C-alpha cells in the first residue's frame, strides 16, 4: 500500500490476556519502529528493526512485550498477560533505512488503540 | 522518559493569527522533526531539520534548528481551520540516532 498500515485499529481485551498487533510498513522500507502513545503524551520508543533483526529494544517496558519481523517486512508486537497500564495507542513507523538523514524520515501508521479492561 | 520540553502545551487563537511553538532539551540532537497529529491518526511529518542553524519553510510553516542543537521552533503563519491538531517536536540524538524522542505536544485550537 501507499502508507504504513496497522491492524486492528482498535483492540479491547481483558486483563491477563495475550494480544498481537500487526504493522505493514511502506514497501521497500527496511527499518521499522514501534512506539507507544499514552493519552495526552507524545509517542515513546519501544523497539526498532533493521531488516529481520531487532537492532534496539531498549524501550520495551518489560519482558511481557515482544516483537518480531520474521521476513523483514510485516512486524507483530506481542503483549503477554496484559495489564490495565498497557492501555495506549501503539504506533508503527517505517523508514527507507535506519538513521537520521534527509530522505530517510520515519512515516507513521494510524496506530492501534489498545484498551485493557 | 521524555527528554524534550515542548511549549506551550495548548494554544487558543483566532483564525488568521500567527502561531509559534518551541522545543528545548538538555541533550544535543542530531536531527529535529516537527509532526502534526489529528485525532485517530498517526503523526504526519511537516518539516525535518538536519543542520544546526538551518531554517526551513514548507508553505505557511517555518522551522529552525537551534545553533546549540538543543532547541527548535515552529511557526505557522496566517492560521486556517485545518491547522487544528496536536503538534509534536521530535529529535534524534547523535548517538543511537534511529529512535525518535518526542515532546509532549502542543494542542492548537482555532476560533473561526
Task: Characterize the structure shown.
The complex is a heterodimer of chains A (117) and B (112). Chain A contains no helices and 11 strands. Chain A has 117 residues and is an all-beta fold. In chain A, strands 2, 4, 5, 6, 9, 10 and 11 form a 7-stranded mixed β-sheet that branches. Chain A has a 4-stranded antiparallel β-sheet with strand order 1-3-8-7, with no helix packed on it. Chain A is globular. The N and C termini of chain A lie far apart (33 Å). The model of chain A has no long low-confidence stretch (mean pLDDT 93). Chain B is mostly beta strands. Chain B has strands at residues 4-7, 10-14, 19-25, 29-37, 44-49, 55-58, 61-65, 71-76, 85-93, 101-102, 106-111. In chain B, strands 2, 4, 5, 9, 10 and 11 form a 6-stranded mixed β-sheet that branches. Chain B is globular, with a radius of gyration of 13 Å. The A-B interface holds A 4, 31, 33, 35, 40-45, 48, 50, 55-56, 59, 91, 93, 98-102, 105-111 and B 2, 4, 6, 30-31, 33, 35, 40-45, 48, 50, 88, 90, 92, 96-105.
Question: Summarize this, please?
Answer:
Chain A is an all-beta fold and 117 residues long. Chain A has strands spanning 5-7, 10-13, 19-24, 31-37, 44-50, 53-56, 65-68, 75-79, 88-95, 107-108, 112-116. In chain A, 0% of the residues lie in helices and 47% in strands.
Key descriptive features of the protein:
heterodimer, A: mainly beta, seven-stranded mixed beta sheet, four-stranded antiparallel beta sheet, 47% strand, B: 112 residues, mainly beta, six-stranded mixed beta sheet, five-stranded antiparallel beta sheet
Q: How would you sum up the global shape of chain B?
A: globular
- The class by helix and strand makeup of chain A works out as mainly beta
Greatest interface by residues involved: A-B, 29 and 28 residues
Largest sheet of chain A: 7 strands, mixed
| Rg from Cα of chain B | 13 Å
| Terminal-residue CA separation of chain A | 33 Å
Helical content of chain A stands at under 10%
Globular, elongated, flat, extended or rod-shaped: what is the shape of chain A?
Answer: globular
Total number of strands of chain B: 11
- How many helices of chain B? The count is 0
Q: Outline the low-pLDDT stretches of chain A.
A: none
Amino acid at each position: 500500500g501507499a502508507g504504513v498500515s496497522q491492524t486492528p485499529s482498535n483492540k479491547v481485551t481483558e486483563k491477563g490476556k495475550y494480544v498481537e498487533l500487526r504493522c505493514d510498513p511502506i514497501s521497500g522500507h527496511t527499518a521499522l519502529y514501534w512506539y507507544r502513545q499514552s493519552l495526552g503524551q507524545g509517542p515513546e520508543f519501544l523497539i526498532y528493526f533493521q531488516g529481520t533483526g531487532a537492532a534496539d529494544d531498549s524501550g520495551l517496558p518489560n519482558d511481557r512485550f515482544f516483537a518480531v519481523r520474521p521476513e523483514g517486512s510485516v512486524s507483530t508486537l506481542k503483549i503477554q498477560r496484559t495489564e490495565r497500564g498497557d492501555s495506549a495507542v501503539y504506533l508503527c513507523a517505517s523508514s527507507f533505512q535506519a538513521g537520521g538523514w534527509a530522505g530517510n524520515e520515519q512515516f507513521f501508521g494510524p496506530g492501534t488503540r489498545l484498551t485493557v479492561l | 522518559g521524555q527528554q524534550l520540553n515542548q511549549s506551550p502545551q495548548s494554544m487558543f487563537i483566532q483564525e488568521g493569527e500567527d502561531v509559534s511553538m518551541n522545543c528545548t532539551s538538555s541533550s544535543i540532537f542530531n536531527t529535529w522533526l516537527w509532526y502534526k497529529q489529528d485525532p485517530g491518526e498517526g503523526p504526519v511529518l511537516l518539516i525535518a531539520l538536519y543542520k544546526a542553524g538551518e531554517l526551513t519553510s514548507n508553505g505557511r510553516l517555518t522551522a529552525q534548528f537551534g545553533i546549540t542543537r538543543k532547541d527548535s521552533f515552529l511557526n505557522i503563519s496566517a492560521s486556517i481551520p485545518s491547522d487544528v491538531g496536536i503538534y509534536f517536536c521530535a529529535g534524534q540524538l547523535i548517538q543511537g540516532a534511529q529512535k525518535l524522542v518526542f515532546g509532549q505536544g502542543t494542542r492548537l485550537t482555532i476560533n473561526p
